[in-house]
């Protein structure tokens, strides 16, 4: 866990050896303490160098050890011994020096860092080689350094605090960092370090720390998929994709073209009309040029080809269909692709919730069909839902997952059902928000409650951004609203359950959100982003409630959070029961990377476990009793079962899901 060598007869070289990131596990700390003692006590040793194996210095404390009691020698006394030692210690840094790894570098008297190191502030060594060995160390001890205190420190920290509170609502760590900076600038080292330890202890024992550690491992677990057949992430070889084609140059298609081209994959982009093709082409080129400029590289425009003819696709490795969300149209595209593309070409769909297997069924290669559900904007959002149809082969799934990772996405394998995972859960979440409007809340009150919880955007601001017409079109196609709805249907019921027509009423007024300058909010112009409460919406709500004799009531933020987030998690439990998601961590990763769920809350499933499953169950029972015509408030059988089993930790829920029909 740490190797000790004597080089040039007088330099002790200590190499951290805990692959893959040399995390400071108890074994590493123990080995380091032993090696440092050996080096400091050996009269032949005049200097010490600490480095990390595998081109990485140190990825910090071993996060896996946080779950239980601390074992082995604590880190701080070890760092103090290095700092106070009488022999110069040099940190030879490559790759990363994170957290405790950063602290280790800081207490070394000198640092030499490879120029490609990220995550590190350089402490520049004045001369090359070990000519420092005989020099006094006092000026090199971090405890002896003086921190200049700017005269306007309070004002400076005030501004930073405001910024942090805006950008990281409710997050503890950044505010603690500001307090640590204040301590470093205004206190002697010993008091400053003591203050920092107090701040660290508060954070370390917080629910937010547990949520962030959970997210870290959940993100890495999400890529480890398994099929009922036993095929899985580490025994299914992905195909190499050198060439791809995108059908449809709408917002999603353009983003997908950019995502592929900027990682070196040649892309043929197809549109149905010359004008659409030309517009899409100009937008893609502009996006790639801006992206390349930002990254300081040249735009890979030579990888692009734009065409009106599917015939040009005959040799590509993979196609992603991104046409209008209409099943009949998609089926025609897949039938055509079947004829044009060579037999081994993978055919993928970017549908946001339609039946992937129905599309597979119209092709000559159902085993090569898979969903690749990108999130808008596709070249920015990191989430990729890889939707496994029952006939998708393990090689096809492995290829889609690997391609997602190559594009810098967080790929999550999910089963095939309406809305898959993310959008299926979004429906009850948004339904609750509109029901709360009927009952007395306003869009801005609901959004504020959700944004105070930690969401970057509340549900109504998010809908205005995405465009209200998207959902409206889906509801019309599903027969929930529009001229085809049976007039005998009571306006507030559909299929025997409660239905809120307010979003339809808003759309019928041409209020589609930011794009039209009016939606749930009003904006200074079409395309504007500065959302202001709109009195016309307030009037619409008042008129609506009086028309249906709804007596508005004061609704607490707590009720808003419980009804929206417990309904969200409840659908997550159903998704686990249906085998559409392999584990709760996958659901949480989808919501962290696709829907802006605040990371310091862990995700909808982790949040439910932190609130306490018994509490979630009790509140859902309460709300379902109050609203019996809202099925998604009825507690799921899995939630009840987990509570009956004593509410085990989220990481063990899989053991209680005996789903024989897992889609994954
Ligand atoms: C006060 C002080 O602050 C306290 C005391 C602390 O120090 S708190 C801890 C502070 N340290 C961190 O926050 C660093 C967290 N790690 C990272 O940011 C990244 O890992 C990376 C270093 C930039 C490398 O990225 P990568 O993309 O090349 O590889 P990977 O896929 O991410 O990771 C490869 C494998 O290593 C595992 N791993 C990475 N870092 C780890 C860590 N610190 N502890 C335990 N395991 C870790 C990870 O789970 C994965 O495992 P598996 O999935 O293969 O089984």
Describe this structure in words.
Its EC number is 1.1.1.35, 4.2.1.17, 5.3.3.8. One of its GO terms (cellular component) is peroxisome. Monomer. By secondary structure, the chain is of the alpha/beta class. The chain folds into 5 domains: 2-144, Alpha-Beta Complex (2-enoyl-CoA Hydratase, Chain A, domain 1), CATH 3.90.226; 153-205; 243-391, Rossmann fold, CATH 3.40.50.720; 441-547, N-(1-d-carboxylethyl)-l-norvaline Dehydrogenase, domain 2; 557-579 and 582-656, Orthogonal Bundle (N-(1-d-carboxylethyl)-l-norvaline Dehydrogenase, domain 2), CATH 1.10.1040. Helices cover 44% and strands 11% of the residues. The protein is built from 23 helices and 17 strands. The chain has helices at 26-41, 75-84, 100-107, 153-167, 172-186, 189-204, 207-222, 251-261, 274-295, 327-340, 356-360, 394-406, 422-439, 443-453, 459-466, 468-477, 502-508, 535-547, 557-577, 584-594, 604-611, 613-626, 637-644, and strands at residues 2-7, 11-16, 47-52, 89-93, 110-113, 243-247, 266-270, 304-307, 318-321, 346-349, 369-374, 383-388, 410-415, 493-494, 497-498, 521-522, 532-533. The strands form 4 sheets. Strands 8-7-6-9-10-11-12-13 form an 8-stranded mixed beta sheet, sandwiched between helices. A 5-stranded mixed beta sheet has the order 1-2-3-4-5, with helices on one face. (2S,3S)-3-hydroxy-2-methylbutanoyl-COA (T1G) binds at residues 20-21, 23, 59-64, 96, 98-100, 200, 217, 220.
């Amino acid at each position: 866990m740490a190797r000790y060598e004597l080089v040039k007869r007088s330099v002790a070289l200590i190499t951290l050896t805990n692959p893959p990131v040399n995390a400071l596990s108890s074994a590493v700390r123990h080995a380091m303490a032993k090696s440092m003692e050996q080096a400091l006590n050996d009269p032949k040793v005049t200097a010490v160098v600490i480095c990390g194996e595998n081109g990485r210095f140190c990825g910090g404390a071993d996060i896996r050890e946080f779950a239980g009691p601390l074992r082995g020698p604590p880190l701080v006394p070890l760092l103090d011994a290095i700092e106070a030692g009488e022999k110069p210690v040099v940190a030879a840094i490559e790759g990363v020096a994170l957290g405790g790894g950063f602290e280790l570098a800081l207490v070394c008297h000198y640092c030499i860092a490879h120029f490609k190191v990220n995550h590190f502030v350089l402490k520049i060594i004045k001369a090359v080689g070990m000519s420092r060995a005989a020099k006094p160390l006092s000026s090199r001890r971090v405890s002896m350094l003086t921190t200049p205190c700017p005269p306007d420190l309070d004002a400076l920290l005030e501004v930073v605090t405001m910024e942090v509170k805006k950008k990281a609502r409710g997050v503890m760590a950044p505010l603690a960092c500001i307090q640590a900076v204040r301590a470093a600038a205004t206190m002697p080292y010993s008091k400053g370090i003591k203050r920092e330890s107090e701040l660290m202890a508060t954070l370390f024992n917080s629910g937010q720390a547990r949520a962030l550690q959970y997210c870290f491992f959940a993100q890495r677990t999400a890529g480890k998929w398994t099929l009922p057949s036993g095929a899985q992430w580490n025994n299914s070889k992905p195909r190499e994709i050198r060439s791809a084609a995108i059908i449809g140059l709408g917002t999603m298609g353009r983003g997908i073209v950019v995502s592929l081209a900027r990682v070196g994959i040649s892309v043929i982009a197809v549109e149905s009309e010359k004008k659409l093709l030309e517009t899409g082409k100009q937008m893609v080129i502009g996006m790639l040029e801006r992206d390349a400029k930002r990254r300081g590289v040249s735009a890979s425009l030579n990888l692009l080809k734009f065409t009106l003819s599917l015939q040009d696709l005959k040799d590509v490795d993979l196609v992603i269909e991104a046409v209008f969300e209409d099943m009949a149209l998609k089926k025609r595209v897949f039938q055509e692709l079947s004829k044009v593309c060579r037999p081994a070409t993978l055919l993928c769909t970017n549908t946001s919730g339609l039946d992937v297997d129905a599309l597979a069924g119209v092709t000559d290669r159902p085993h090569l069909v898979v969903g690749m559900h990108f999130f808008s904007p596709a070249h920015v959002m990191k989430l990729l839902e890889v939707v496994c149809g029952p006939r998708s082969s393990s090689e096809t799934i492995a290829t889609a997952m690997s391609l997602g990772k190559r594009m810098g996405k967080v790929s999550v394998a999910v089963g095939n059902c309406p809305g898959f995972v993310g959008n299926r859960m979004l429906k009850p979440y948004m339904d609750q928000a509109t029901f709360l409007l009927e009952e007395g809340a306003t869009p801005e009150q609901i959004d504020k409650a959700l944004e105070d919880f930690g969401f970057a955007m509340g549900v109504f601001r998010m809908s205005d951004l995405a465009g209200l017409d998207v959902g409206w079109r889906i509801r019309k196609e599903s027969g929930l609203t529009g001229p085809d709805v049976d007039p005998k249907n009571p306006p507030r019921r559909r299929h025997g359950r409660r239905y809120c027509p307010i979003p339809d009423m808003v759309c019928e007024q041409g209020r589609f959100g930011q794009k039209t300058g009016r939606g749930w909010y009003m904006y200074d112009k079409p395309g504007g982003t500065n959302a202001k409460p709109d009195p016309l919406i307030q009037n619409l709500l008042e008129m609506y409630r009086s028309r249906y004799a709804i007596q508005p009531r004061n609704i607490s933020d707590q009720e808003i959070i419980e009804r929206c987030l417990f309904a969200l998690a409840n659908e997550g439990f159903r998704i686990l029961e249906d085998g559409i998601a392999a584990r709760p961590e996958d659901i949480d990763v989808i919501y962290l990377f696709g829907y802006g769920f605040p990371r310091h809350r862990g995700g909808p499933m982790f949040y439910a476990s932190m609130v306490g499953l018994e509490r979630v169950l009790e509140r859902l029972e309460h709300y379902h009793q109050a609203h019996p015509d809202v099925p998604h408030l009825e507690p799921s059988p899995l939630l009840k079962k987990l509570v009956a089993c004593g509410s085990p930790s989220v990481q063990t829920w899989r053991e209680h899901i005996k789903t024989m029909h897992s889609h994954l």
